[in-house]
């Protein structure tokens, strides 16, 4: 039987984003029962809770993840190898998070989620930017095949690093439609409003880790303009934990005296996301660059219209369910906010179109695309 090890580390370490993608794809892959011996590799130690939650046994390392990163990627030492921990020789190792751990697997597949660090070098800490620019291209060269989250990322790989298109398979993200669906129950909506101290005013939801690439500073400035010009009663609710280089975001709120109108809700629990999306007037996601834009699909699946940017993969994710703006133009964002906040018919149109568009993004579809990548690289 063909033995495939999948790097499950992001699924353990990251609740949202890449972690959600890896969990969704692995669960759906197991459900498809493709006839492979699948093994889940985790860099670093795991807890009993991690093991109980995982869909298959976890093959973890006694060396912590931070030291493995230092050994494998910063020093480029090619041991310990993955198969030392996964129980013997591998036919395929799938590295799911930008970098390829040392392995003698017969074939190697690497997922590159985006090239944000190439296009927006100032949006990351200098040390992280340098690290990614060294280890990701090196991992791409060593891999036999590449998985990209979107067609746009696939084109970026070809244009920036001359990766042959035939080496790349597009495997798009998805949502669990049993979970991400419209919540019309007023009690559930009221409960999330109370839990995150949102209040009773209509609100615009923005959701992501606080970092420069997510463009919150411009969104806040545009919101101030829109409020003033259209006398909007809305609050801007920003959900997500602190990432890096986020001081400008909070400074902008103070400079514009928006403390009563911009609310930082912090990290949002998965269980609360559908009601939070559903209760919002619309979802704002004016990112400067994305590899896929999973929160857009989540919002659309919950029946929430989207305001997003016309860059990178965002039109691919949002399709006809969004109003598009120029992420680098505050005036464009402000005009979009006013239109979305005041045009009931537009929101209804986007809601209907977006719900239909989001329905195609299922984890089963994503897992079938991933299986094609496995079959292609295995030959």
Describe this structure in words.
It is a single chain. With 379 residues, the protein is α/β, with parallel strands linked by helices. It folds into two domains: 3-174 and 362-378, Glycogen Phosphorylase B (Rossmann fold), CATH 3.40.50; 186-358, Rossmann fold (3-Layer(aba) Sandwich), CATH 3.40.50. The chain is 45% helix and 15% strand. The strands form two sheets. Strands 3-2-1-4-5-6-7 form a seven-stranded parallel beta sheet, sandwiched between helices. Helix 13 links the parallel strand 11 (282-285) and strand 12. The longest helix has 17 residues, at 126-142.
Topology:
Layout: E1 3-7, H1 9-13, H2 18-32, E2 37-42, H3 48-53, E3 58-60, H4 65-74, H5 83-86, E4 92-95, E5 107-112, H6 116-119, H7 126-142, E6 145-148, H8 151-161, E7 168-170, H9 186-195, E8 203-207, H10 216-230, E9 235-239, H11 247-255, E10 262-266, H12 273-279, E11 282-285, H13 294-301, E12 306-309, H14 314-318, E13 322-325, H15 330-342, H16 344-358, H17 363-378
Helix pairs in contact: 2-17, 9-12, 10-11, 10-15, 13-16
* CATH architecture assignment of the largest domain: 3-Layer(aba) Sandwich
Mean pLDDT: 96
Query: What is the count of β-strands?
Result: 13
The major β-sheet equals: 7 strands, parallel
**How do the helices and strands follow one another from N- to C-terminus?**
EHHEHEHHEEHHEHEHEHEHEHEHEHEHHH
* Class based on secondary structure composition and strand pairing: alpha/beta
- What is the fourth-level CATH superfamily of the largest domain? Glycogen Phosphorylase B
What is the quaternary state of this protein? single chain
Beta-strand residue percentage: 15-25%
CATH class of the largest domain: Alpha Beta
**Uncertain regions: pLDDT < 50 for 5+ in a row?**
none
Molecular shape? globular
Number of helices: 17
Number of domains: 2
Distance between the termini: 15 Å
**Residue share in helix:** 40-55%
């Amino acid at each position: 039987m063909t033995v495939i090890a999948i790097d499950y580390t992001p699924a353990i370490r990251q609740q949202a984003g890449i972690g959600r993608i890896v969990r969704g794809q692995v669960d759906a892959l197991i459900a498809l029962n493709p006839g492979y011996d699948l093994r889940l590799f985790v860099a670093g130690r795991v807890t009993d809770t991690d093991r109980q939650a995982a869909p298959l046994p976890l093959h973890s390392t006694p060396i912590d993840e931070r030291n493995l990163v230092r050994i494998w990627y910063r020093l480029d030492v090619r041991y310990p190898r993955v198969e030392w921990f996964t129980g013997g020789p591998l036919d395929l190792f799938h590295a799911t998070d930008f970098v390829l751990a040392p392995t003698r697997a017969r074939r190697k597949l690497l997922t590159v989620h985006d090239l944000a660090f190439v296009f927006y070098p100032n949006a990351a800490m200098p040390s992280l930017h340098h690290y990614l620019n060294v280890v990701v291209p090196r991992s791409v060269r060593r891999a036999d095949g590449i998985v990209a989250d979107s067609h746009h990322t696939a084109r970026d790989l070809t244009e920036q690093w001359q990766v042959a298109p035939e080496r790349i398979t597009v495997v798009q993200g998805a949502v669990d439609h049993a979970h991400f669906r419209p919540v019309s129950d007023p009690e559930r909506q009221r409960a999330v409003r109370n839990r995150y101290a949102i209040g009773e005013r209509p609100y615009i939801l923005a959701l992501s880790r606080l970092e420069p690439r997510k463009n919150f500073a411009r969104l806040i400035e545009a919101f101030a303009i829109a409020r003033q010009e259209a006398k909007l009663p809305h609050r801007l609710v920003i959900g997500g934990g602190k990432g890096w280089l986020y001081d400008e975001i909070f400074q902008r709120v103070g400079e514009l005296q928006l403390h009563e109108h911009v609310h930082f809700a912090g990290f949002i629990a998965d269980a609360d996301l559908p009601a939070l999306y559903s209760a919002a007037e619309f979802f704002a996601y004016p990112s400067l660059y994305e590899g896929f834009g999973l929160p857009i699909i989540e919002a659309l699946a919950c029946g929430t219209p989207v305001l997003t940017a016309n860059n990178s993969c965002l039109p691919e994710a949002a399709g006809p369910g969004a109003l598009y703006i120029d992420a680098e133009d505050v005036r464009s964002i402000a005009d979009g906010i006013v239109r979305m906040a005041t045009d009931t018919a537009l929101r209804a149109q986007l809601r209907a179109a977006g719900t239909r568009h989001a329905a195609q993004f299922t984890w089963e579809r994503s897992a079938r695309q991933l299986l094609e990548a496995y079959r292609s690289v295995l030959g």
